[in-house]
Design goal:
With 217 residues, the chain is mainly α. It has helices at residues 2-6, 11-20, 24-41, 46-64, 68-90, 105-129, 135-153, 159-176, 180-213.
Amino acid sequence: MEEAALAPAHPAQIIIQQFLATSPWEAAASLLGLAYLLLAVRRNLLCWLCAFVSTSIYIALFVKASLYMQVVLNVFYLVMAVYGFIDWKRGRTESGDVRIESWNVNQHVTVAVLVIIASALNGWALSRWTDSPAPYLDSFVTWGSIVTTWMVARRIIENWLYWIVVDAAAAWLYFSQGLLATTVLFIIYLGIVVRGYFVWRREQVLQSKSAIAAPSI
């Protein structure tokens, strides 16, 4: 009986217990984050309101978890929520839809190199001067998310492809820190961002056709 009592819990039981222990604040932030992404796929301006509130909650959660770069990232998200709302409202087609743009190869290569360099330097600094539990992964998720969020705000279609890599890394980071609700959210994100790319791509093609068909004045 004593041996049975001392037996370690099954991994599935541990995950369930951690998930049930999720704070109401983390659950609320996760749901608002999910709402943000679903609305962003539809190019709905309300996505930025959801992002603003969700990000505000996450700032407090990440301070408590000592994920310092995630705190910095979410402060950036607050700014981008405001900027994105303004840019999406301004960057519209004649029919009122949010205009979709693209980056060229040189822009993508430049951004990828900068993210890798920034992540390496940032990770080294965190490992040397802080108690961050995952300095390099935390840094990569931060810098990758900064670039990708900027792309969303600027209506760049390739943002969805960037999010596949960043969200996968973020899901592992949050799982390793016991943020189960957020981990599940980011796993769901992976499916949504794939759909987001195809939805935006279809709309981009329609916008291009409309621009070609429009009579010049």
